[in-house]
Amino acid sequence: MKEKIKQILYIRKPLLLLFLLLPLCAAAQKVAPFKGGDRVAFVGNSITDGGHYHSYIWLYYMTRFPEARMRMYNCGIGGDTSLEILRRIDHDVFAKRPTVLTLTFGMNDSGYFEYNGDNPGAFADSKVAESRRNFLEIEKKLKEHTSVRKVMIGTSPYDQTSRFNDNIFKGKNDAMRRIIAFQDSAARANGWEFVDFNAPMCAINSRFQAADSTFTLCGSDRVHPDNDGHMVMAWLFLKAQGMAGKKVAEVAVDASRGKVMAASGCKVTRLKTEDGRLSFDYLARALPYPLDTIAHGWGCTRPQSRITQIVPEFMDEMNSELLTVSGLSGKHLLTIDGEPIDTLTAGELASGVNLAAYRHTPQYRQAMAVMALNEERWEIERRFRDYAWLQYNFFMKRGMLEANDEKAARVFREGQKSDGWVAAKRDLYGRMIHKEVRDMYTRQMDMIVDRIYEINRPQKRRIELVAVE
After folding, report:
1. Is the distance from CB of 323 to CB of 344 less than 8 angstroms?
2. Residue 389 burial (CB < 10 Å; 0-12/13-18/19+)?
3. Which of 193, 243, 225, 240 is closest to 61 using CA atoms?
């Protein structure tokens, strides 16, 4: 039966294919949350290599579960197909001793220019079949590592609908959906987990393109999501892990009775109400999730924080630090640790105020320090991924994997003459050929992670509301 399903996926009958792909869009996606001690390897191509979705996911765990220390690894390499992933998975991925492995591919597997050629259908069939053959070999290797949790990720889409220009490889994303389908099938057959980025991101694109035909989550090349797209990917993954609806913390106080009515995810002590002033100590178990307002990464122009425009429910779903105070009248100045935050009406306070929406609270600034350190860690790790590109896509083909000697340097110098991608990494290779430099970068990342897990513990804050005219 399973083999019949696999064969059907290659039959080019649109209605049948649509029927088979519907479960990827409609089914509730479920991935177990990560836990303290996990080592998560995110395996993929340039979207993983140069992208932030895995970094944003780790940032969520750094701030929401500050005591659950874990490690997440960027195991993407630009340009990789499933074949390149197969060739490097032992040396590059399993060598990191992951407890969880996520795998996404398909953008490069499915090809590009030929979709505007004479026979795009036959081309798509051949590329999907080739990708499946490579994946079946990957599947064998994954099965050997029984102690590692596997999560298949349906790749982010190729945007074939936005009208910001006419350079569109028509039908490419349809072929990618067929690749995602056999990932999903393998996950079901093996008891692995699965989450799809493609269909939900296409749905967002479609919704916004109805008003603005040039909108895209997928960047100016239709392939690489910008920071906002990567944050959407992180949101989809975290939703699949059941994080939607989990508040940072929630406090409800009845000022007229001087009583704490609810305190979830936090501890409230020393409540006082006197002379038009209400105050209490507040110790949360988590920090708000910081959203960067600066675009990071090659070619990126849109910041992570733009997710609040694309997914307005994000703050309510995943970044709610709710303060509700009833029994007041008039306006009140809210301060935290003596810092003015906002002037709020009694009605606003009674309805509930999301403290995570204020970037200048002490707890948000604390979370921003975590974010900045995590971004610095990401930058250093990116150097290792460019170095990995050279090792697996240049040196390994020449039987010189990790040679890093003068002979390898000569081969590099010769190779850069005819390969612009190799030449572009000249400065990086000139440094990282040295083990001492690589060791230093590794120590820097370890020190950053150590520091993050020192400063990410929430601190006790003094919240005050003072009546103002």
Report:
1. no
2. buried
3. 243
Task: Give ∠ CA 6-136-143 in degrees, rounded to 5.
Answer: 115
**Distance, CA of 309 to CA of 153 (rounded, Å):** 25
Structure tokens at 355: 């403290």
Global pTM? Answer: 0.93
Dig out the tokens for 48 from the structure.
């993983």
pLDDT in tens, 227-261: 999 999 999 999 999 999 999 999 999 999 999 99
pLDDT in tens, 197-226: 999 999 999 999 999 999 999 999 999 999
Q: Which of 109, 214, 111 is nearest to 171 (CA)?
A: 111
Tokens 């699949």 belong to which residue? 240
| Strand spans (E) along 257-338 | 259-264, 266-274, 277-284, 321-326, 331-336
Select from 69, 98, 47, 31 the least CA-distant residue to 237.
31
List Cβ neighbours of 33 (8 Å cut-off, separation of 6 or more). 241, 242, 243
